[in-house]
Amino acid sequence: MEVLIQPDETAADELVARLMMDTVRRHPRAVLGLATGRTMEPVYKAMVEAHAQGEVDFAACSTFNLDEYIGLTPDHPASYRTFMNQNLFDHVNIPIERTRLPNGVADDIDRECVAYEAAIVAAGGIDLQLLGIGHDGHIGFNEPLSSLGSRTRSKALTPDTIARNAFAFANEAEVPHRAITMGVGTILDSRWCLMLVKGASKAAILAKAVEGPVTSMVTASALQLHPRCTIVVDEAAATELDGCDYYRWIWENEPEWAPYRSG
Ligand code: GLP
């Protein structure tokens, strides 16, 4: 696991967007794992702008999103399909039929989850999985006590997650209480996990996820088990990390990051 501390939100967003786009430039047929949440909006905006400038071609990519609310049709304004269409898919050239999210209105949710796992395998697995983090440490919608070996399945959301995500709905009563989410095990199968964490409100949970024990109470801590996990953070989110001096040394000295240090 590497933690790359960036001076501010914009620098963190730009680094993540560049890492995503460089992956696509190197591997045009990349399978991208995508995430929703306000954290990701500027990242997708940067990708849309780069695409408009002719700097990146997504034509051969395919994508799998982490999660979707159960009970929301794809065209519901608060569905994650709508979020992805509005923030990314409507503005770049990824063929829409190769953009996948779980179907939250499937007749048989369990079967949908099995099919989602099978589709990821059929696509050759996820090359790069983009991740945010919830205030309770969730990745996808893997709420506390999710098995660290879990696969795509239906998961009940915590009252705190429901309240925090209510901003996208007319009122809190409209927020679904369940979602289909890739499991922690599904996420750990990705070849590269790239997490973006910004802002002081995420500092405490980031420190638990990165430097605390691996525990199902903070499912992001399972990323410590992944052989290739990069965590991009801004200064505000880094304030509660103990190892900042070492992390800064890595960013400033490791050859892998040299092309990105110059900005
Ligand atoms: C939701 C999503 C997560 C996301 C989290 C944080 O719960 N399921 O994938 O990481 O929100 O969202 P935000 O980026 O808005 O803080």
Compile the SSE list and pairings:
Elements: E1 2-6, H1 9-26, E2 31-34, H2 41-52, E3 62-65, E4 67-69, H3 80-87, E5 99-100, H4 109-122, E6 128-131, E7 153-156, H5 159-164, E8 178-181, H6 184-188, E9 193-197, H7 203-211, E10 229-234, H8 235-238, H9 244-253, H10 258-261
Parallel strand pairs: 1-10, 2-3, 2-6, 3-5, 6-9, 9-10
Antiparallel strand pairs: 4-8, 7-8
Overview of the molecule:
With 263 residues, this protein is α/β, with parallel strands linked by helices. It has one domain: Rossmann fold, CATH 3.40.50.1360. The protein has 10 helices and 10 strands. The strands form 2 sheets. It has a 7-stranded parallel sheet with strand order 1-10-9-6-2-3-5. Helix 7 links the parallel strand 9 and strand 10 (229-234). Helix 1 packs across helix 2 (41-52). The two termini are 22 Å apart. 2-amino-2-deoxy-6-O-phosphono-alpha-D-glucopyranose (GLP) binds next to loops.
Summarize the entry for a quick read.
34% of the residues lie in helices and 16% in strands. With 263 residues, the protein is of the alpha/beta class.
CATH architecture, by name, is 3-Layer(aba) Sandwich
End-to-end CA span: 22 Å
Write the H/E string, N to C: EHEHEEHEHEEHEHEHEHHH
CATH class category label: Alpha Beta
